[in-house]
Structure to design on (211 residues):
């Protein structure tokens, strides 16, 4: 059920659905998604669907992981990427294989602990974790060339705009529970350029932390 054939089928599907960056597809191919879900759900890990990870959260759908990663990388390689919403750590694992360093913030401590263990087991060492509220970003290590938010914000957090480097790119879902859209925000010499992209469905970007 987690066979090579099932995994290949997922890659084929992502490519048919429009994920064109071959590096992204290759990283998705070699990253074991079944490691990021509970054993009882492992047989569904290579379906193109979001799955529950506990605490009312989900591991993102592979298509959306591919899409957001591709958009973030579209202007060239990135050295410092801030991720808001570590969750299972799956998106973190994909990013860590494509950029130099990932800084990942999660507000639910139990999820963060599990993600840390998995990523260490996969030998991904270029990730730094922070337990905190992603609405604040991670100012001490700013600026970032890329920011990826994997929960839907009611509005674009000002702290994240402030922490974006010149020419930096941010991918963020914005909206209410029922009506969300993916935005690509680029920092230009004049300010911020906002591009409205696909309709999406993410869990909300919440405030505060949870033990
Ligand atoms: N990329 C993750 C997605 C997890 S779902 C994955 O594929 O597994 C969204 C995650 O964002 C959840 O883990 C949730 O706890 C986290 N989150 C929500 N609001 C947050 C905030 N303000 N700061 C940090 N993380 C947040």
């Amino acid at each position: 059920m987690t066979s090579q054939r099932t995994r290949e089928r997922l890659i084929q599907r992502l490519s048919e659905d429009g994920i064109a960056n071959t590096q992204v597809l290759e990283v998705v191919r070699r990253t074991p998604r079944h490691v990021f879900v509970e054993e009882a759900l492992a047989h569904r890990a290579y379906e193109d669907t979001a799955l529950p990870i506990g605490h009312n959260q989900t591991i993102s759908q592979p298509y959306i992981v591919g899409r957001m990663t591709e958009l973030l990388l579209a202007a060239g390689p990135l050295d410092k990427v801030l991720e808001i919403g570590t969750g299972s750590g799956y998106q973190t694992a994909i990013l860590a294989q494509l950029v130099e360093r990932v800084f990942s913030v999660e507000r639910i401590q139990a999820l963060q602990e599990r993600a840390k263990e998995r990523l260490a087991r996969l030998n991904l060492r270029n990730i730094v974790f922070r337990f905190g509220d992603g609405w604040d970003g991670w100012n001490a290590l700013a600026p970032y060339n890329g920011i990826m938010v994997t929960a839907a914000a009611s509005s674009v957090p000002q702290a994240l705009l402030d922490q974006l480097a010149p020419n930096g790119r941010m991918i963020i879902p914005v909206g209410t529970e029922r009506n969300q859209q993916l935005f690509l925000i680029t920092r230009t010499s004049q300010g911020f350029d906002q591009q409205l992209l696909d309709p999406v469905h993410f869990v909300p970007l919440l405030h505060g932390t949870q033990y």
About this structure: The mean pLDDT is 97. The CA atoms of residues 2 and 33 lie 9 Å apart. The pocket of S-adenosyl-L-homocysteine is lined by residues 57-60, 84-85, 87-88, 90-91, 105-108, 111, 133-135, 150-151, 203, 205-206 (CB under 6 Å).
